[in-house]
Design brief:
There is one protein chain. The protein is built from eleven helices and eight strands. It has an eight-stranded parallel barrel, surrounded by six helices. Strand 4, helix 6 and strand 5 form a beta-alpha-beta unit. Helix 2 packs across helix 4. The two termini are 30 Å apart. The structure holds 3-methyl-2-oxobutanoic acid. The site of 3-methyl-2-oxobutanoic acid has 12 residues, from strand 6.
């Protein structure tokens, strides 16, 4: 397989400085919206880099959008590390967040710290994210104390979607909103530098973020959060089929990919590809010498050519 003339070095410097945690806090204080997106490989990272986003999350949504699993539960830490390494090669300036997959942090503080360290050391992400409140608050505290910054995630937490009653908005009752608020305050109290709010009614988000000091990043949580995040494949129209209510399509890349692939199939079948522009030439004298070689008696029948493997 060939990648043609595409470069596989990191994208050119954009003139922007790498995004830092104090800068995110300053953006929140100044009311400058924080832009976050997911990425799972080198090309998606370079797109995020070139578009100037502030935070790139190597999300466990990779399980569904790039690995084809039905939910986020099956993705392993090893799989997340492979994806994270590829993302790192495509990023210079955005803050890179490594998502801790289900099973990589819940069982104990030791496990959580060890796996957070693996994500940072092996992928080059600067910070990690883990989902939910409850026991995750203790795990977040342990990871923060080990020196790795943590982003929290409340509301719809896909790793525990079954327990939450499915992929649906959270905090729609007063009781649910209180739980969500307590989780967010607890995550802030143990030192999370930011918190994702997923699928939460806009008015509930607005009321909770007023009580928080750390930046919040919303996905389906309305406009009150300090930033917004969307899944790369959803916003660019790479995913097909039903998408969540909160997704806005900014492109229809899947349609363009299928149309391009169909044209390629037709061109090959109708012998319109490759064209003269796509082939390499050879000096006529070299070609003539090669033909002379092929015309030798011993090569008269290539099928009966007596090939001796090297010892
Ligand atoms: O994995 C992911 O993509 C996420 C975002 C939805 C925040 O956690």
């Amino acid at each position: 397989m060939s990648s043609g003339s595409r470069s596989h070095t990191a994208p050119p410097p954009s003139g922007r400085q790498p995004v830092t945690l104090p800068q995110l806090a300053e953006m929140k204080a100044a009311g400058d919206p924080i832009v976050m997106v997911t990425a799972y490989d080198y090309p998606s990272a370079t797109v995020a880099e070139e578009a100037g986003v502030d935070i790139v999350l190597v999300g466990d949504s990779a399980a569904m959008v790039v690995l084809g699993y039905p939910g986020t539960e099956p993705v392993s830490l090893e799989e997340m590390i492979v994806l994270g390494k590829a993302v790192r090669r495509g990023l210079r300036t955005p803050l890179m967040v490594g998502d801790m997959p289900m099973g990589s942090y819940e069982a104990s503080n030791e496990l959580a710290v060890r796996n957070a360290q693996r994500l940072v050391k092996e992928t080059g992400c600067q910070v990690v994210k883990l989902e939910a409140g409850g026991i995750s608050v203790e795990r977040a505290r342990a990871i923060v104390n080990s020196g790795i910054p943590v982003m929290g995630h409340v509301g719809l937490t896909p790793q525990t979607a079954t327990a939450l009653g499915g992929y649906k908005a959270q905090g729609k009752t007063a009781q649910g909103a209180i739980k969500l608020c307590e989780d967010a305050l607890a995550l802030q109290a143990v030192g999370c530098f930011a918190i994702v709010f997923e699928a939460v009614p806009a008015a509930i988000t607005e009321a909770i973020v007023e009580k928080l000091e750390v930046p919040t990043v919303g996905i389906g949580a309305g406009p009150a959060t300090a930033g917004q995040v969307l899944v790369f494949h959803d916003l660019l129209g790479i995913t097909t089929g039903r998408v969540a209510k909160f997704v806005k399509r900014y492109a229809e890349v899947n349609e363009a990919m299928v149309a391009g692939m169909r044209s390629y199939v037709e061109d090959v079948r109708s012998r319109h590809f490759p064209e003269p522009d796509h082939v390499y030439g050879v000096e006529p004298a070299e070609l003539a010498d090669f033909r002379t070689y092929l015309d030798q008696e011993s090569l008269a029948s290539a099928k009966s050519w007596d090939w001796e493997p090297l010892p």
